[in-house]
Write the structure tokens for this entry.
Amino acid sequence: MTSPFLSDLRAQGYVGEVGLRVCDVLGRELFALNPERVFPAASTIKVPLLILALEWAQAGRLDLEGRVTLQAADRVPGAGVLHELGSGLALSWRDVLTLMIVVSDNTATNLVIEQLGMDAVNGWLNAHGWTDTRLVGKLQLPPEQRNAAQLRGERNRTTAREQTDILGRLVRGDLLDAAHTALALDILERQQYRDLIGRGLPRAENGEHLYRLASKSGELGGVHHDVGVLYTPRPLVIALLSEGGMDRRELPGNHDVNLLSRALWPLLSALGKVHSDGDI
């Protein structure tokens, strides 16, 4: 049976494929559409990277106030600001993690991958049962620096089921202690790309959002993702993954994101017990 969510998307002309899963914060599934389908992870791969880095900090393996020096060779294009800055900049690891999420900085992400190691990241994912989420390599590398898997066309990948499980276990405190859980969610709440889940957030009369959102978006050509924890009256853990859309990447106000957000929010309002006027 086709869900109203998907029917609405198709009626509005969306041609891509979608994976969507919504759970409550206890992990109980409230809605699912293609939750096991594997998608290119795009920048949602930065969520497990953040959590593992904070696990290392919690264990004393990574000093969040320790410094890493940005080298010219570290800079890669795409999202973020570090590729616009000069080499020699000394950043704290706290700053690197913040940049990786808040402005989705690809250079910062590669610094984190270099520090953690790809095998350690994938081993950690496996140990938690997230076998469909994979870090294949660093982001936005020139062809001569890509590894064999990347040269074969493989991409970092994930599923809606695993993204909601990762975020759900984070918010329940299953992955980090209270202080590092709070830090992870605080960083995710400050993400500046809020065009999908965040677009439909109801506002008070003064313009302030009524509900908090801790999230991470992701985007490639024809790919638009958003995963997060939405603190509606019944808090929700959400993963919306999509690919095969018609929009180019990094195009503000694009058609596909508008359609996805408009179709998503009636579902979130119902599941999150939000009245149509945004009141509880």
Summary: Residues 255-271 form the longest helix (17 residues). The chain has a mean pLDDT of 91.
